[in-house]
Amino acid sequence: MSTENQMLQALVVCVSAIFTQNILLAYFLGFCSFLSVSREVKSAFGLGVAVIFVMTCTTAINWFAYYYVLVPMHLEFFRFIMFILIIAAFVQFVEMIIDRYIPPLYYTLGVFLPLITVNCAILGAVLFMVIRDYTFIVTVGYGLGSGVGWFLAIIAMAGIRQRLANDRIPAGLQGPGIALIIAGLMALAFTGFAGVLQGN
Fold first, then answer.
1. What residue segments make up the domains of the chain, in order of their start?
2. What's the pTM value of the predicted model, to 2 decimals?
3. What letter does residue 191 receive in the DSSP assignment?
4. Among 68, 83, 154, 92, CA closest to 124
């Protein structure tokens, strides 16, 4: 496949990962931190940006690790261990940078920043990259699109929950109840994009 075709496919896959195949609202991956950190827009924004960066970089790094280390050595069955180790190391690197240069964001995110390591959306994106046999360029596009899709979902959720904070919500729906209802409605809204653009 030529570079131009790969770039076009990467663009299609990227846009598709944001809307029609949103990794959070279509596959429900990364729901734990999504529900926990989406109480305020500020903290949701910081975590969302970190997820975009981590997801884009780790999908690219893991692509090289898989196709240039595991496949030539016929050790594909070690992919889960290698993927998790690379993600954990990269998240630790991001955590040290945020702690050093953006301390307020570091303390705002608290325990949820290192929890990016066990965010199944990150591992899910890497596994989808392998299952769908993406090229490197398409993998980067998919990682970026998945991160942006997750970012948009958590920002939208945080905005809605912050707006609802001052409104009257029945006692039985307060907290996780209303959050799950909002997430379900958002998933239905994103489903409306299906058929507009589909990525392979």
1. 26-189
2. 0.86
3. H
4. 83
